[in-house]
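Supplementary Methods S3. Complex input for the calcium ion-bound model.
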Amino acid sequence: MTTNFTKKLFSFLFLALCIANYTEAQLVHPGISHKLSDLDRMKAMVEAGIEPWATTYQNLSSNAKAQYTYAVNVDPAITTEYNSTSDGWFINDGTAAYYNALMWYITGDSRHAEKAIEIFNTWKGIKRNTMTVPLSSGRIWRIIEAAEIIQHTYDGWAESDIQEFKDMLVYPGYSNTTVPTAAIASNDISFYWRVYQGDPARHGNQGLFCMRTMMAMAIFLDNEIMYDRALRYLQGYTHRVDDVAYPSGPPINNNQLEGCEYFDEFTQNGFETTITDYGFNEVISNYIYENGQCQESSRDQAHGQAGVSTITVMAEMAWNQGDNLYGHLDNRPLLGLEFYYRYNLSWVESFPDQTSPWEPTVASGEYIERTDQSGRWRSLKINPYLVCSTTEEDWHRGRVSLLTSPIYEMNLAHYKDRLGLPSEDYKWLERGYDYMTAQIGVEGEGTVTDHPGFGGLKFRRVSPGDPISGFNSNGLPVYKMNDLSVPIEAENFDYFVLDGQNRTYSDNSSANEGGAYRTDESVDVKVASEGGYCVTNIEAGEYLTYTINVPANGTYNLGIRYASANANGNIKFNLDGDDITGEVAVPHGGSNSTGLTDWKDSQVASEVHLTKGVKALKLMFSGASNAFELNNFSISLVEADPDPVNLAVLHGVASQSIDSDPCPYGGCAELAIDGNTNGNFGGGSVSHSAHGTSGSLKWWKVDLQNNYNIETINIYNRTGGYQSRLSDLTVEIKDSNGNTIYSEFFAGYPDPSWTLDIGGVVGQGVIISKTTDTGITLAEVEVFGVDDAITLSNQDFKLENTVTLYPNPTTDLLNIVNAQNSTVSVFNILGKQVLTPFEVKEQNHQLDVTQLQPGIYFLKIDNGFGAVTKKIIRK
Ligand SMILES: [Ca+2]
Ligand SMILES: [Ca+2]
Ligand SMILES: [Ca+2]
Ligand SMILES: [Ca+2]
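Predicted complex, serialized as structure tokens:
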């Protein structure tokens, strides 16, 4: 195994002796495309509602194959054989198992896990495979992803069923010494023996699919020899001495066939056996040439994309196992992506450095004329069509479906966010991402079997490294999100497969000066005098990164467990790039630590407000070097913010514009705050104001009886007809003093609902009005905010009556009068602060409003005793 994981057997020798009968995993689990920490990140980001995770998850969760009600294709006549009837069933069921496995982990709803198990059990009896082209068996990898996730995160899959499913994948049995040639010849095999040699006779994408199934299967089976078989072949290495050989060569070819202007074609007549482990088109350097050109680029663009993408899918699996396939031959996979997207994107868009479509040619030196490793094709020219077609429908170059394929997130997460390469290196990949985002929003599902899909959920990262809780007895990192319920050990800083310097940490000396624990990394770790490990040799300018999940919006106390030599060292907590503590001196003497064996707890900061979600925490060190050692640190919840509730239901009194009848058509105003969003007017839960005439004001209002901090307003329209009557609405919020705190006009109508993110303004009444024809009908209006009434002080009232703003509207200057000794904050209509708050000293302060875009703003004037908010209009 060419893994970068250093076996840390020494540290664990004692432990290993105690559990000698237990066989430790050879590979990381779960560890195909998603480690446990990756699944943890998905779940936490979805729960926190953070983009793009939230929207991508919405797309996944609404997919038919992600439902626990998915109907499995059960037919005993064909679930034991992989053939031209069952392959589509099996692959679709496999995708459903994969999506349900993700849904299980994210939602915790075991019905999703049980659905995946139903699928595994349906197909665990496959004993024949008549799909003789290896490619077909290369397309089943998603069910293996599902099996890996379920096996390692859910305890309801029976051991005997797991074993049967594993046995099925390698039927009639795995061997690293003997090939079951008779069984292969009679098709009495399942998948491993269909993919184990790749496909030496065809274009590279087909054998690459085989390698993908092999690598996923190897990880699920915890089979290091099988894993290395795929990993070594892709890199062009010879087979392991304890494994069967790779296909021999060279191919025997003659008889030039017709071909076309893009490629020459030859017949194939078997293979010589003169060169063992010959290396066919699956080998990365045989598939992506030194200029980035794909072996299949003279065939068509779709297949080349699939092949390059498949290489990167395996690169992600390998990375999760500690191997740097992404970096093979100086990031060759990225070079392949760049070539592909430059050629295809420049067809549909113009860029400053590529204003016309890029045409790489042999003559220009940008295209390579080369015979592929199967000997069947010789590339002559890059092909914008499908094979030798010249019809319009076979034009592939720059197709939207190709440019929106879900390849971007995973590769940008690696090359951009993990490695931090110069942006020039992934320029075309990022341009492709921008193109896709403009077309479809977040990354979608794409071709069902060939891409991982939904990358904004699965692969988007917050930090270069991955959180770990330690290492197992084989020295493999134990990936797990830092969840803040217990202290985080300083020595368990984020893991990075390559050198973590300037990625997950910065350490001034390349050796681990403490000599313990993570001995192949630069951070200085030693055995702490109180037990466990601590970080030592802490110097100014060094830092350590930990990926953490903040579980709730709320206040937290930040503390460290440390021992100090003197009082001259400082620590700072930085979260997602924001300094949240400032530099804090680590205390020494008195009741604090008095020496490097005197371990104490110290609070670094108290009641720091944090928002929930997965974040990168950096501990940064300054001051004197070697002033203290750090054992662990804690971020403890003091008090979670109260959850917003629907204030309209709890406290609201509704009214509306009426004539003589308070409930026109039976639609009393309070029906829009009865807690029922059913929009069917006949259901008796929809309000209806008087119609009035076109141009007259119609309104509906809820009075919350007190001032509250309003976060969001959801407006539900009626359904089943007349929806367009609720058009062109003005939504206003007024406080108890009658001030309009928020006002915005919305064209169009909710279909069926709108969510207005108010962002926390203090108000008592919400008014919805319009002047278009017909009355206002509302299925429901939800006003979400914290259930904590806010009394506007008398001072507010004084300020309200004394502070004057003029001219209003204004184009350049605004006079703020009688607001001396106040702090003024300026918010836009969405409640976002648009200027740095400033102090007003004089009685008449002049504000230059040319720094604001034209629009409506609110000035909050706070004199320390009370505050008032006033609206201005910048013309
Ligand atoms: Ca060091
Ligand atoms: Ca150090
Ligand atoms: Ca520790
Ligand atoms: Ca209602």
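Residues 507, 509, 511-513, 522, 524 surround calcium ion (ligand 1) (CB under 6 Å). The longest strand covers residues 698-716.
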